[in-house]
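Before relying on records like the one below, remember that each one covers exactly one chain. Contacts with other chains, cofactors or solvent are not represented anywhere in the record.
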Amino acid sequence: MAAPLSRPILAGKLFPWPQKVTYRDLLEGNIPSGLYEIVHGEVVEMAPAGFLHGDWEGEIYFRLKELLKNKGWLAVGEVGIVISREPLTLRAADIVFVSREKSPERPKGYLETPPDLVVEIEGPGSGDLHPKLKDYFTFGVTRVLVVNPAEKTLALYTAEGRVSFHGAEEEIEVLPGVKLSLKDLA
């Protein structure tokens, strides 16, 4: 895992972070935009995704959009999920789906409703995803799909503690009635 940033560079200048970043800082916009997560109030930098990661993220998003139709809200691109307000833990997900049952209206801003599905794309720089998965399930996420484009594998984790691993040819049920396989993609 990357080390917390103590003085990030903003527009060529060092930006002094407070000792701990708070939920209030987040709401008041006192945190510059950039690629990072906040874990227990500490800013943790993230590297930009590579092309393969972005390509798979787009492919999976469009396939899920097609399959889910009007069942809820789907978003892509390091979607901020507020895992806890105190201490602030803000995770960035590659793709999220929130059902209309959980959120009748389209969410705005940082997501504070647990998604039904989170998709993470593994790749260079992903690091250990287990702390992130633990945060997702503690928050109330139902399922997390981890995609490894290099190995062409899927791993489906559930809130009940089950995990299943699948190859490129296998079709899996990522949500009730929603099946996906890597052969449909890229």
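Residues 1-15 have pLDDT under 50 and may be disordered.
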